Amino acid sequence: MVGSRRWARALALQALYEIDSVGHDSEGVLSQLLSQRRLSEENNAFVRELVSGVLQDKERIDQYIRNFAPAWPVEQIPIIDRNVLRLAIYEILLDNKVPVKVAINEAVELAKTFGGNSSSKFINGVLSSVALAFTDR
Fold first, then answer.
1. What is this structure's pTM?
2. Confidence of residue 117 (pLDDT cuts 50, 70, 90)
3. For residue 1, what are the CA distances in angstroms to 42, 72, 98, 122, 127?
4. How far is 137 from 24, CA to CA, in rounded Å?
5. Structure confidence at residue 4 (pLDDT)
6. Which of 26, 36, 57, 82 is the most exposed place for a label (fewest CB within 10 A)?
7. How do residues 15-69 score in pLDDT, each as one tens digit?
């Protein structure tokens, strides 16, 4: 289950990256990505839920990023890092379906896989600050 959820989060990240960097329509991006992968219906729904949740609350999520990474204007954060943060902040503060530690760990793993050399440390630092400020889980 953990592996399949991680794979689903990776697909959600890929979709968010494409939407953010190129501006493609979210439904078209999701349809294409999901048609190329063999995920369970549950994980297909999970990917769609993550992407739509992040996009629906993007401005609010970006404000959290501004507050907890004030030295980094959101627009200047590398696209992968920005979208890993968006995904994790959505899961931590808005979705509340996984424990905070799980959301942070999954984000750090995505950053290690897709981000730059210092991405995982940056992601971990920002998300740890978010968790301390907003959660008791």
1. 0.93
2. very high
3. 11, 35, 13, 27, 23
4. 36
5. 84
6. 36
7. 999 999 999 999 999 999 999 988 899 999 999 999 999 999 999 999 999 999 9
Taking the C-alpha atoms of residue 132 and residue 14, their distance in angstroms, rounded to an integer, is 28
Provide the CB-side half-sphere exposure for 12 (13 A, CA): 30
Question: Residues, the chain, total?
Answer: 137
Please report the pLDDT score of residue 1 as a whole number.
43
DSSP string of 60-76?
Answer: HHHHHHHHH-TTS-GGG
Contacts for 86 with CB less than 8 Å, ≥ 6 apart:
16, 54, 58, 61, 62, 65
Say how many CA atoms lie within 13 Å of 34 toward its Cβ.
21
CA distance 29 to 37: 13
Residue 17 and residue 15: Cα distance in Å, rounded? 5
Two tokens, residue 122: 């940056």
16: tokens are 């968010």
Task: Determine the longest span between alpha carbons in the chain, in angstroms.
Answer: 40
